[in-house]
Structures are given as C-alpha cells and as structure tokens.
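Two folds, back to back.
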Amino acid sequence: MSQTVCDSAAHPAENATPAWMAVFSLAMGVFGLLTAEYLPASLLTPMAQGLGVSEALAGQAVTVTAGVALFAGLLVPGLTRSIDRRTVLLMFSTLMIASNLLVAFSSSLLVLLLMRILLGIALGGFWSMAAAVAMRLVPSALLPRALSIIFSGVAVGTVVAVPLGSYMGGLFGWRSAFIAAAAVGAVTLVFQFMTLPALPPHKPSRLRTVLEVLLRPGIAMGMLGCVLVHTGHFALFTYVRPFLESTSGVSAQGLALMLLGFGIANFAGTLLAGWLLERLPRGTLVLMPALVGAAALALVLLPVTLTGQTLLVALWGLAFGGIPVAWSNWVARSVPDQAESAGGMVVASVQSAIAMGAAGGGAMFSLSGIHGVFIAAGVLMLLAALLIARRVNVAPSVN
C-alpha cells in the first residue's frame, strides 16, 4: 500500500465524535464571506454616487475580490503550511471583519478596492481549506452531510445578500450594509473561537504540491469536469434575467420572486446533496449538471408557461445547490492527503469558470441571441455530465 493511502486513513477525522458545532461555525463563515462578496452587486448605484465614480468602476469591487480569491486559493495553503488550521480560519474571519469595516469607511474607490483584497484572501483561503477541515471534524462516513451543512451557507448568503444590501442601503446608506456584514463576521469569529478545536497541520503543503496533485491519475480530468460544469452554470446565471424578461414578459416583482424560488431551491439542493452523496457519490456528480442542462434546454425548446418557467428555474436551483458540495466531496475523497491543495485548485477552477462563463455567454449572446446562450450552455452541461460519468473517478488517487 502506498504512503498516500496510508496517510489518508489517518486524516479523515481527528476523533470518532463529530464536531457538529464546529461544522456549523464553518457554515456561518461561508454565509459571512458570501454576503460580503455579493453586497456590492446590490449597492452599485449608491456606492458609485457616494464615491463619485461610475457604476462600472464601482463594480470592480466584485472583480477584485474574485481575482484575489483565485490566487489565494492556490497560494494560501502552502504559505500557511506550518500554522494550526484553527488559527488560519480565525485569521480569515478577522480579515473579513476588517475588510467590511474599512470598506464602510472608505473615502475613495482606490481605498475600497484595496480593502476588498483582504476579503479576496479570506474567501479564497477559506474555500481551499473547507473540505480538508471538514474531514478532520467528522468521521469519513458523515463527510457529505458535513459538507452539505457548510455549503448551505452559500445558498443562504446568495439569497440574503442582495435583498439585505438593497434594504439597508435604502434605509441607512450603503455603508451601513458593510457595517452589518462586519457584525456578522464578528459573531462568526466568536462562534468559531468557541467551537473549533486545535487543528495542527498534518503534512506540510508547498506551492509545488498543487502541480504534483494535478498530475495524479484522474485529477486533471476531474478538474476539467469541474470547470465545464461551473462555466455552463455561470453562462446561464449571468443571463437569466434578460432571458426571463424577453421570453415571459415577467414584471420586476415577478422576476424577484422567481429568483427567490431559485435561491430557496438551491438551499434545499445543498442539503439534498449530502444525503445523495452518502449513497451515490459518482451519480450525484453526474445527475446535478445533467438536470441543470435539461432545465436550460427545456426553458428554450419547450412551450412552457410562466408557471412552467418558474418550476424549471427552481429545478435548476435545486440541482446547482448540490454541485459545490459534490465537488468538495470529490476533492476530499480523491486527494485525502492533500485536500487543501486540491481545494485550492477547485477554487481557481470555479473562479476561472465564472469569468469564462460570463465571457462565453456574452459572445454567444452577440452571435445568436439569448436563446443561443441557453442552448449552448445547456448542451455544455450535458456534455460535462457525460464526461464525468465516463472519465471522472471518485476513488482515492495515489502517487
């Protein structure tokens, strides 16, 4: 038996008793980070007015965070390789608090963008370590359930951030929303401080470890599947509003309700994925993108009513809710001895896919209109599901 497999047997959990409160503290961290990341999307107009810049420039607050998160996901595990993971996670929550407070009191766009770099470091670093830390908090058999709880913070953050930001920005000004996000971060920090056990690093990670992991049998193909799935989704999601407005004539209020339904279904899908992964790890990886692709094609090709569109959008949300959980579970199962480095690759893959999905969707929109976007992205999701079914392995990958 290889050293990799021997190491993996010792890694899944620090003890046999699941630390569920610590798992919930990680879910709170996810919620806080996602809320902070998405806040500018709902506050662009007042932020731009308050800082005296265009909305396009203010929108770079999101771009900067995503770009930094991409590199942080790859670099942070190696740069913090000798530090207790509990300490590192507490540092991420501290960075989140500092970023939100400093953004709230920023006097210029430059200062604001610099402060968003802190959030990007916390965001990318946290995502790279989430699966690896979960492996040490619960026994191996309970890992899918733990990941579904942690990633439920994504769905809640996605649903809450935009309306919360708009509501608070309208009542008290855009800066108040970031102060509220800092308060959420403070509660998270205290809860994590009280619940996270000591998590000394098992095996030092170095920067070259990322490449070494990528070269293991089956890992590159899995990362390709991850990129394709997220590219297809973000091509769809970036253009969901113009698609629904142009095909159904739905009002702004009706559109908001449809997207709320997407978010609620997304939350349910996150929890459902934990149950499915315990029983069908490969089947879940295949089923979720296949459902998203089928829903996208049905929205274009079938003569559905507004009710039918609402149900298909909800199905899409339900299916996508399980995708981040499924890929984090794949990382933990496939590379148990270097889950942080593999998690960093997933972070980079997803952030790259966001950019490629938006850019590719825009190019397709110019060439063939909004229907072309949904047909191309739907087909891409189905092809990704086929690739995963035929070529992606869920067993541990050895050196």
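---
second:
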Amino acid sequence: MRPLLTIPPWLRVAIGAQCGLLIGMGLGRFSYTPMVPALIGSGSLSGSEAGYVGAVNLGGYLAGGLAVPWLLRRADRVFWLRVAMALSVLSLVASIVPGGFLWLAVWRGLVGIAVAVIMILGISSVTATAPTGRTGLATAIAYTGVGIGILLSAAGLPWLLAMGEIWAWTGTAAIGLLALGLGLWAWTGPAASAARAIPPPPATLGAARGDGLRLVLAQGLFAVGLVPHSIYWVDYLVRDLGWTASLAGMQWMLFGGAAIAGTLIWGRFADRVGFRLGLIAVYLSMALGAVLPVLVTAAPAILASSLLVGAQPGLTAIIAGQAQRVMGAGSMLGLWRWMVLSVGAAQLVGGYGLVALFNETGSYAAVFGVGGLAFTAGAVLVAGLKGGGPDRLA
C-alpha cells in the first residue's frame, strides 16, 4: 500500500537544510539581534560587548567553513549535518545560563561554526539534488528556515523578555529542539541516500574560475552589507529613534516575514528571468533598504527597510543556484565552500570593523551607509557574470 503523501528526495533534502538553517541561523544568529537592547539595559553586556559577541559568532562561521574538508575526511556530510544541528541547539540551551560576556561569546562562537557546516553541506546538497527548473525553488525553501527562525523569535521574544532574559533564551531553545526533531527526520531515508550519492567536487574550478571568483567576492560584499541590520537594526530603532522595544520587535518580526516570503519570491523570480538578472535586482533592492532608514526616519521608510533587507536569504538562494550553474553537472561544494568562507571572512572583518566604527563615531548613518555601498558593489560584480538565463523545466 502506497503512502498518501510521497515527498520526493530533493524536497526532503531542502526541508532538512531548512531546519538546519532555522536552528543555526534563524535562531542561533538572528534571535540575538532583538535581545541586544535588553542585554545592554539589564547590564548583562555593555554596548561594546554586545557588538563583539555578535562578531564572535561571525568569526565562528569562518572557522566552521575552514573545518569542512577536515570533517569530511572523517565522516560523511549527513553525519556532520546532524551534529551541527545538535550543536546549534546545545548552544541555545547553554545561553540560558547567565554567564556573562565570555560564556555567551563562547557558545555563540560554536553556533557560528555549526551554521557554516550547515550552510556548506546542506545547501550544496540541495542544489545537487534539485531537478532542472527547481533549483531556485529548492534553495528558496531551504533558506526560508532563516526567515521562519527570525519570525518565530521575533513573535515570542518581546513578551518573553518582559519576564526576563532567561525566559527569552529558553523559548528560543525550545523552538530549536522542535526544529531539531524535524531536521533529524529529514536527513534520513531518501534524503540521506541522495546526499551521500553526490559526487565529490572537482579538484579545481576549471572553466568556472572567472565567474567563480566574481561569486566569491560578491558573497563577501553581501556579508558586509548585512552586518548593520543583523547587529544594529533593533538597537538603532530603540536607542536612536526612540522606538519602544515592542514596536522595534515588530519590525524584526516583519524582517522575518520578509525572509520567508521574499526568499520564495526571489527564488521563483530567478527561475523565470535568470539568476544573473535576479542577483542584480536583489542586490540593488538591498542597497536601497540598507541606506533608506538613515536618510528617512519616517515609519514607511523603516517598514520598507525591514522588508527589503529582510528578504536577504533570497539573495543567497539565487547565488547558490548560480554557483551550481557555473559548475554545471558537477558538485558545487568546492566553489560553494569558498563562497561561504568569503562570507565568514567578510563578516569577521566587517563585523569587528563596523562595531569599531560605531564605537568610535556613535553614528548609525556611517554603519548603514557602509552596508549600502557593499550591496551596490555586489550588484556591479554580478552584472559581469556570463550567461545565467532562466533554468527551464525539462
């Protein structure tokens, strides 16, 4: 007797990556942003410590990307995906303990390592198993995990924070545990078999070297552009514009909602018009979203910024699809790892650099301005990509 609902392996792989990104990035990284004002207000962290804890998370991401080849020599990708999801949840649970700056920095560094492993191994599995004409959709499904994590944490954190920081961390960890259960299921059976059957990446990038280098650099610029919103968005609304924590939290909720809807929209858009045109469009939209709130502080501009920058997983979904097209039928793991390392290095430099810039100047305009310039430069880079037409269904 056949089951009523059969999930194709490529979709199950996408769901597994979605759960991993929900835990590691949506919760592990982005749930920290709306907590920053409360952590500073309670004295748990100083303003500079809050920024550096965020930067440590970005440093962990770079370390995780560097560790992937070493890890794959010891076990297969499915094993490490499961381990990374479990480590991410453990980090969320450990954050419940009020251990101060060093304690929080250590655990957020570990979740940064884990999310890099999920990003490299999970997304390269998604693009390798997606059928023709479904690459944009498959990667978009995976990246909605980021938005779901942001949305859930944004919806629950304001009233949990009202009861105390411990409750906020506990609620975040509880959501992570539920996602871990679904993720462990997804990375079994057909999805695990499909992922393990992916051929190893080529030793060199070959003919893909030119476009590959553009993608590596563009990913780094994307990472720099995203730092201001990922660390300072809620803090800017509360401490500079005088918004209440609840109203600022609602903007973070919209940020998460845009990450879900925008990712699916951008993914389908790229499948229809081509990955190159899709990349140019999303880079320019994010450049506008980055600088708009410091040029115009009215509520509509703030709303537009939350929606435009919130859709950021859509860019990563499209650029992952482009990376697969550049590599052709082969595995994109090698190229994708360099792209993730570019993100990690740019986040590390950009994270520490922009925190230092803010600490020196106290200017949110300077920080968000750098973000807008980085996104604009990314648009210029991807405009030079070869090809990138629509990915038609066979």
